[in-house]
Structures are given as structure tokens and as C-alpha cells.
Amino acid sequence: MVLIKNINVNKKKDIDVEIWPIGGYSECGRNMTAVKVGDEFVILDIGLNMEKVAESDLEIHLLSPKELKLAGALPDDSMLKPFAKQVKAIVVGHAHLDHVGAVPKMAYKTYDCPVIGTPFTIQVLRNLIREEKYKPDNRLISMNNGSTFKVSENITVEFVKMTHSTPQTAMVVIHTPKGAICYANDWKFDQNPVLGQKTDYKRLRELGNEGVLALMSDTVRISDYSRTFSESLVKEMFKDLLFWLKGSSQAIVVVTFSSHIARLITILELARNINRIPVIVGRSMKNYISAAEKINLVNFSKKYKIFGGKGKAEAMFKELEKNREKYLLITTGCQGEPGAVLTSVANDKLSFKFIEGDQVIFSASTIPTPINEANRAILEKQLRQRGVRVFKDVHVSGHGGREDLKDLISMMNPMHYIPAHGGLMKLSSAAELALEMGYELGKTVHVLSNGKVLKL
Predict the structure, then answer these.
(1) What residue spans define the domains of the chain?
(2) CATH code of the region 17-227+398-455
(3) pLDDT of residue 5
(4) pLDDT value, residue 51
(5) Beta strand extents in 73-211 (DSSP E only)
(6) Who wins on pLDDT, 308 or 147?
(7) Average pLDDT of the chain?
């Protein structure tokens, strides 16, 4: 059972702290939370509903904010707009589009405040803004993990190093006169990360000892009754599988998340070891790689062929068709998205076409939403009907499992726990875990929905 500490409140007892759940509490995606401290706000993440974006079969930058909102791809921030001038900062914890992808669409002409993120996240955001027709002019502030930024007299932002499936992920800590609000929306505990350093466990425990008023955490993998294993295990999976396939005269295609730079490091290294030339095709992959190169995390462009879209890779696809045993194609489409490269190949829309005996490796899980699961099932069926060998689950998640969440809550010992980033079933399951740990429903653990304000 958790022994919940009393939070040390300073003299400014008249300052109220409220949590405004705007997106990501009634669905998995389009994450957006506002923290109100007195009469000031900080926005945590402004993300897209990637399922709705996939349905449109169009590039995000081609769609207007109005079109995206009508499609249900943007958070509904109508409750916050009347207080737009009181928003002092937008803080993004990491670079996934369901957390940062809507910043260019919604910050434009609405929230006149700086956007704060780690260097990789800010560089990804710069790439997104560069593509936009109407560019927001918010000041972009890069802040390293382990650093703080004073937003106002009553609000200081701190970044605590966390591991996830994209580089430089941070737990965002909002220090207020009433205590710390900790926002861990996408994280895992990885003892042997392929890229970057381990979670700053020391700081998490320090925060727990200092007194955490509220902890918000994602619930994407709450139904996994285990812990999430290290990314380093995927390297061993790939080593085993690719050396098993070594010598094959058929095509090898690896499909993974475009933002997973650590995974790309593993695949590119092992492709050379089986005498295949790696080729990367995908607009979003190129964007994320470009961001990683800008801040000197990797240097892929000098060593490997990288194409930013299907049209730009046409000559390469023709070469792949003629010499399929020579290359290893790395691309997007792990969710079966209609416009992705893999789906286009499966539907004979490109010069490179699958034939019997070709091999597709899925190095990604399906994001657990009905449309994603349906699209992925359709894609796999198409591949098998063509005689393609399908290898699934060469992957470990970037999200903590149920036991990881239990450890996080124990470390941080918050007065209030608020599950996030999932529909009612996931949030309720996380709340059940908190109840097992001694929290009380409606008093110290809170199941919120979009638009339901919680006063702490």
C-alpha cells in the first residue's frame, strides 16, 4: 500500500491548481492537457489523432486546421480559447505526432506563447512548421533533460530524462506553489537503451520525496501484466531473423515507426552484416532522421540512401524490382495506413511489386484502435495472398507495462494519480491498479474525460 505524503504548501495558499483534460482522455491520441495555476495556464502537448489522419489518406500539412478539426483529428480546445491570453507556455514531452503534431495547426494565431521541448522534439517541430502554409510564429525553446525554465513567478518547468521509442523524451514537471505536477505521457523503463541514457531514477525518487501533488501517466500498455523489456532485445531478435534469411534471393522489407531512431540504428547496422544495401523510403522517416542529424544524434545521410517520399524514390523502386536480393528496404506502414509505402506496394501502386517468397518484417506493434487493427489485418491478408512471408512482433514497446506503472507510482508517491492517453477502459484499468496501491477513487485517483476539469 502506498503511504501518500502530505504536500508542503507554501504561503501562497490562495493559488488554485486545476487539470483541464482537453484531448487524450476519451481516446488514445490527440493528447492535450492544460494545467491552470492561479490565473495562468501551461499547455502540455498538442497532438493529432493519427487514426483520423490515416483515414484522410493525405499529408497532414496539406490539410487546414478546420479540415482536421472536422475530421476529429485535433483536440477540441474550445474550453480553453477564452483564456488563450493567459496561456504562458506550450510544453511538449516528446516528438511523436499524437503529442506534438497539432502544435503548428493550433498554436497559429491562438496561443501567443513559447513552445518548449527537448532539442530533438523542437527540431521535429521545426520540420513540421517548415511544411505548413500558415506558419505559427511562436518562439521555440530547446531545453535539455535535467534543466528547468521559469515560465512565471508561480510556474517553473523541469524536464526529467525518460526512455521511450523516440529520442530525448522527457517527463514534464510543472513546479507550482502547491507542489509538482508530473506529466509522464509516454515512457518506459529501459536498463539498456540502444540510443541515449537510462531514465533519471534518482530525480524521480527525489521528486517523490519532495512531494508530488499529481502524476499523469499514459495507459497505452496497461493491459500488459508485465514490464516492458529493453530495446536492446530487439537487436538480438533482428540478428537471429536476418541471419536466418541471409542468402535469400527474395526481397526483404522491414516496416517500423518513422520516429524510432534507435530501431533504425539496429536495422541499418545488421543490413550491412547480411550483405544487403539498406534503403530508407518515407517522408516522415526522412523528417525524423533530418531532426536527429541536425542535433548530431546520428549521421545516416552520408552512409545510406534515404528518400523522402514515394515519388522521389521511383528510380530506386525500379532498381529494387530488378535486384531484389541486393537491397533491404526500410519503410513506413506498420499500421496498414492507406497512404503508406508498404500499403502502396501491396496494392501494386509502385514500380516495385511483391512476388511469392518476398519477406516482410513488422518491427512495430499495432496502435490499439479499431481502425488501425482493421487496416493492419487487411494489409497482412493482402501480403499472404501474394505469397509473401510475414514475420511479426520483432519489436518491444516504447510504453511501460502494468508493472512499470506500479513502480513509477511507488517511486513518485503522488498525492493524486491521473491516468491519461487512453479511452475509458484503459483509464479505468490504471485506476484499478492505483486502488490496489491504496488510492481512493474520486479522492486521490481520478478517471477524467475530455472537458472534465479537476481542481486539486
Answers:
(1) 17-227+398-455, 232-391
(2) 3.60.15.10
(3) 45
(4) 79
(5) 87-91, 115-117, 140-142, 148-152, 155-161, 170-176, 179-184
(6) 147
(7) 92
Phi, psi (5° rounding) for residue 170? -125, 145
Does 58 score more than 70 pLDDT? no
Contact 193, 262 (CB under 8 A): yes
Q: Which residue has the cell 491562438?
A: 110
Alpha carbon 378 to chain centroid, angstroms: 24
> What is the rounded CA–CA span in Å between residue 339 and residue 366?
16
Count CB neighbours of 148 within 10 A. Answer: 12
What are 267's three cell numbers?
A: 536495422
- CA–CA gap between residue 139 and residue 119 (Å, rounded): 14
Model pLDDT for residues 102-140, shown as the tens digit of each residue: 999 999 889 999 999 999 999 999 999 998 887 888 999
The residue assigned the cell 479540415 is 67
Cα(414)–Cα(233) distance, integer angstroms: 32
Grid cell at residue 418: 491521473
Query: CATH topology of 17-227+398-455 equal to that of 232-391?
Result: no
Report which residue type is found at 248.
Answer: S
* CA dihedral sign, ordered 86, 89, 93, 98: positive
The helix (run of H) or strand (run of E) holding residue 375 is helix 370-385
- Strand, coil or helix: 436: helix
In this predicted structure, what is the pLDDT of residue 93?
Answer: 98
232-391 has which fold? Rossmann fold (3.40.50)
